[in-house]
Amino acid sequence: KNSESFYSEDYGKSFHDVCHAINNTFIKKDFGISAGPGNPQQVILTANLPFTETPGGVIFTSMDAGVTFRSVQLPFHPAQAIQFHYQDPKYIVVISIDVSKVLPPTLSSPLNSLRGELILRRTQDFGKNFTTIAKSVFSFGYIGGFLFTSVMEKLASPRVIYVSSDQGDHFKKAQLPSATTEQFYSVLDGDEDMIFMHVDNPGDTYFGTIYTSDDRGILYSKSLERHLFGGEGKSDFTNVTSLRGVYLTNILEEDGRIRSVISFDRGRRWRFLKKPENVNCPDSSTKCNLHIHGEHSHFSGITPMLPLSEPTAIGLVIAHGSVGDSISAVRPDVYVSRDGGYTWWGTLRGPHHYTILDSGGLIVAVEAHRDRQISSIKFSTDEGQCWKIFNFTDHPIFLAGLASEPGTKTMNISIFGYRPDDDDQPMWVAVTIDFEHLLTRECDEQDYVQWLAHSDYDSDPETDGCLLGYKETFRRLKKLSACRNGRGYMVSRQQHSCPCTRDDYIEYGFYLHENTSECLLQADFLNQTQDICLNGELDDLQHTGYRKIPGDKCEGGFSPPKREDSFKNLCGKDILPASSNLHTVRSVSGPFVKKIIIHYTVAKKHEVKSLIMYDTI
Ligand SMILES: *[C@@H]1O[C@H](CO)[C@@H](O)[C@H](O)[C@H]1NC(C)=O
Ligand SMILES: *[C@@H]1O[C@H](CO)[C@@H](O)[C@H](O)[C@H]1NC(C)=O
Ligand SMILES: *[C@@H]1O[C@H](CO)[C@@H](O)[C@H](O)[C@H]1NC(C)=O
Ligand SMILES: *[C@@H]1O[C@H](CO)[C@@H](O)[C@H](O)[C@H]1NC(C)=O
Ligand SMILES: *[C@@H]1O[C@H](CO)[C@@H](O)[C@H](O)[C@H]1NC(C)=O
């Protein structure tokens, strides 16, 4: 239940007990330690105090990696890990469920019956003051630039999602299907531009649908159906951080098989993974692709590691997987990709622990065995094409894991484990290896090449590699260069904007009735759209009915037809209102392939007088 913490300043060669610095307070085992994003020196520990005996929790904050701490008394008990603001780690968000005030402490597990009546509070000064920013909350999440609450507008009614892009000052209702208490929403990932949202299917299906949002988190497009999402809140959704726009996940197909899919354009299209050239398909399989193990497999002990990619190791992805018509739980192998997941290479047999060092110039791996001691570490200087073995000890250990400084700049890796000593008591050991002794040459200019990301090598050079309106050329190590990038290495990239195409625009669409050629708004969305209109939210959707994809930087090329042109084509009707107080509204595309625009006239600001819909196709 309780745990002690230690810190290391020398890459794991020695550890100091932090107990004295926090006055011997026990910290929570499940979410006791939060490290600042981008600043490993910033640490927050959450004390494990008895819920009923203290008025609120205590956190310990450190700005020097745990050497000194300051304690902060909270006026509530945190029920989740402390989360940092995505841009400014001075700000933190935490959920509190204060049961003591509402119910006698003897009642066990009353939380579920209270969900939907929760209050979301915010602090901007490390817990000194709190303001209530949302009520009737069922749950909340904070990711990228967005704060989400799922809210029961009436007691026991299906939940709806509210989104704030200003840290909770204002909330807007998101245009997503509502969910009953048995269903759930899950924000899979997000940044300042957009988020990926999973909406659970009704019933115990173990799958749902992924939607991608616009840059305000309000309008959504359907991205992927039958997305696997297990009972324990586990999802295989993986942001491939070494290449912009690439995401991996698993789907549960109708035949009950689990298959991996990858998107190279931030969730617009998904496809199966290519089979690695150096691996044969099992004889029995008719379809043959690579399938990647994610959090589900990790949770059930099939793989010791999740897929690994790092923003500083351009294009590099390491993951456990299997080749065939669906994922296989039998002894997964390790695969690598050096182009962000377009092509793969079978690299190590059997499950391994792995780490990326020296900004991708070095990969290390250790075999994962539950029942066998190990004494060697494998390393590769060519992104997993070839491996060398280094025997790090004469006294083999049972491996617990690998640890290194956050990020990839270091060349020091610690191997943690234990060996039974004479009394059969496990003795914990950590072996630290400094690979600077093995990789002594510093890289020079000849070791690097220019590499165009997302290139398919044979399309039009003007558009080859274009993604969200721009292409990027990286300077990266040649495959066969055995040298070290060093601590000072910085990713160097050149950006070029691409000409716009229709693909750079979202067309928020309704559908055209096939028989009457009438433009119809999808019934579910009508009320919500009106809500948004009423809130004056769609002012920026006016003009033409097209909206550039969030974060898209294309220039020139396709330009959306002018407003007048689109009006003339409206469902063959010639009603071009001359008034200037005309707005254009679109709904998410997603399931409605055909593109329609709605126009509405606004009498007073924020007051919808009439709503007329037209087709634009
Ligand atoms: C530990 O206790 C001492 C004495 O009560 C106090 O001055 C100090 O602030 C405490 N430190 C922390 C981190 O709570
Ligand atoms: C995916 O990872 C990249 C690199 O860390 C990050 O810039 C991006 O915001 C992430 N995408 C999402 C949707 O979270
Ligand atoms: C490492 O150890 C293995 C057996 O334990 C041995 O076969 C191998 O030669 C050793 N390698 C080196 C480089 O010493
Ligand atoms: C590895 O650790 C040593 C200290 O033990 C340190 O001097 C060196 O800079 C580290 N190397 C890297 C690349 O982090
Ligand atoms: C359109 O008309 C066809 C033929 O009359 C009919 O089968 C179909 O159901 C109609 N479609 C819709 C959406 O009403």
Write the layout of secondary structure elements.
Layout: E1 2-3, E2 6-7, E3 16-17, E4 27-28, E5 33-36, E6 39-46, E7 58-62, E8 70-73, E9 83-84, E10 92-93, H1 111-114, E11 118-122, E12 131-143, E13 146-152, E14 159-164, E15 172-173, E16 185-190, E17 195-200, E18 207-213, E19 220-228, E20 238-239, E21 247-252, E22 258-263, E23 271-272, E24 289-292, H2 295-299, E25 317-324, E26 333-337, E27 345-348, E28 352-357, E29 362-367, E30 376-380, E31 388-391, E32 398-403, E33 412-420, E34 426-434, E35 448-452, E36 470-477, E37 492-497, E38 505-506, E39 511-512, E40 519-520, H3 523-534, E41 547-548, H4 563-568, E42 582-585, E43 596-604, E44 607-615
Antiparallel strand pairs: 1-4, 2-3, 5-6, 6-7, 7-8, 9-10, 11-12, 12-13, 13-14, 14-15, 16-17, 17-18, 18-19, 20-21, 21-22, 22-23, 24-25, 25-26, 26-27, 28-29, 29-30, 30-31, 32-33, 33-34, 35-36, 36-37, 38-41, 39-40, 42-43, 43-44
Architecture overview:
4% of the residues lie in helices and 36% in strands. The strands form 14 sheets. The protein has a 5-stranded antiparallel beta sheet. It has a 4-stranded antiparallel beta sheet with strand order 5-6-7-8, with no helix packed on it. A hairpin with a 7-residue loop joins β7 and β8. Mean pLDDT is 78; it is low at 103-111, 517-545 and 563-617. Bound molecules: 2-acetamido-2-deoxy-beta-D-glucopyranose (NAG) (5 copies). Residues 375-376, 391 line the site of one 2-acetamido-2-deoxy-beta-D-glucopyranose. Keywords: Glycoprotein, Membrane, Repeat. Residues 1-576 form the VPS10 domain. One of its GO terms (biological process) is Golgi to endosome transport.
